[in-house]
Structure formats: structure tokens, C-alpha cells
User: Fold this.
Amino acid sequence: MDWGMQNRLNQLMPNGKCFFMPIDHGYFQGPTTGLEKPGETVKPLLPYVDALFCTRGVLRASIDPLTSKPIVLRVSGGTSMVGHDLANEVLTTSIEEIIRVNAAAVGISVFIGSDYEKQTLHNLSTLVNQCEDYGIPVMAVTAVGKEIEKREARYLALCCRIAAELGARVVKTYWCEKDFDKVVKGCPVPVIIAGGPKCDTEREVLEFVHDGMSKGAVGLNLGRNVWQSPQPLAMVKALRAIVHDKASVKLALEIFQANVSR
Assistant:
């Protein structure tokens, strides 16, 4: 592996594990609850995550370049929640811009099984071709749009393997209750767990994260279940303990409770 590629991956995944904080939701949702002022939202959480996943607009407008963690730059988009199909994405950011903002990696969505499957896989391939020349890792996001029922192992395994085959260095995908280990084993590059919709309880979040990590995922890209939590600082500390310290769900809950603000 090229030195630059290896160095960037090590920044993002110290000791092979990672906790990314996504705040890119506005690129298709607009002002998202909890992210009205993204810079203020993430500031107290930054010490406990390994990288931020965001767009160039929020990066420039809201994130302090002197204190930021490494950046995974969202570089696909072009659709919205009120549009016809979330899968109809294009590349939004040039390689020059990626380098200009000193991104440690880039992230792009692929929509396998949608009407735009070929288009989004072509976006991924084009991005890999550009970024490999500069040692910048590409994270493929196996997105499903509004079709929540697609979050099952056979489909997720298909998505992850295709993304890896096309050159993604890391794949972000959803956890599934059954056979998640098969999703990970079928993917030759590291798999990161997506957060998905906000869970009802803290235990629910910690349990699915712990299960995914125990079945081979290298980390998390999880946002709403942190910054939409009534106790975001307690939640980020509990999740970090699972990812980097192999904490049990029981211990993670104890860490959460110990950090609840009264």
C-alpha cells in the first residue's frame, strides 16, 4: 500500500478501529434536528471521535480548521427528500477540491438495485480512479434511500462486495440482526456500521453496535443516535468504549449513566 494511503487510513482508523461522526445529513434533508448549527453540535463530541463525515459547505462554514479531527468528505449528492428518487446522485466535488480541503478520505453513496445502480456505481469507479492517484481512500456508503426493508444480510453482502470490487478502501453499511457476520466475511475491505434511524433507547444503540463489532465490523459511522440523544456526550463516550476498548454493553451502559448531565 502506498505510504500516503496507509498514513491516511491510520489517521482514520487508529489501531484498526474507528468512530466517525457523520454530520452530512443536510445535503439531502436540509436543516436536520440537532444539526441546525453543526459546528456547535460537534464541538464537545470531537475529542471522542476519530473523524467527521461532512460536506465541503459545512466544513468551511462550521468546522474550525485548527481543532478539527480528520475529515471524510461527502462528495456525492444532487437529490433531496422532496425529489423523485434519492438514488439519482452524481459526483459533486472535484479531486482538486478534495485535496484543497485536505480530506483524509471521501465518502460516496451507491444504490444497488435502484434505477440508478449503474450511475452510482460509475460514480464510485470514477472517484476511485481519481483518488487512488493521490493516495486518498474512498469509503462507499451502501445506501438504500427510503427502502428500509432492504437492510438484510443477503442484500447488504451484495452491496459491500460490489463496492469493494470496484475499489472502495472501506465500506459503510447497515447492521442487520441476522447473519451480519456473513456481510463482513464477504467483503475484502474493512466494514463500518452505519447508524441508521434514531433508536428508541440507549441500550438498543449500544446492543446493535456491540453485536456488529463482535461480528467483524471495524467501527462506526453514527450520528443521529449521538447528537439527537438527550445526552450526546454520555452516548459518545459509551460508544467509544465499545469501539476502542471492547467494552461490553453492560459496561457501556455504566459509562453512559456515569456521564449523564443532571
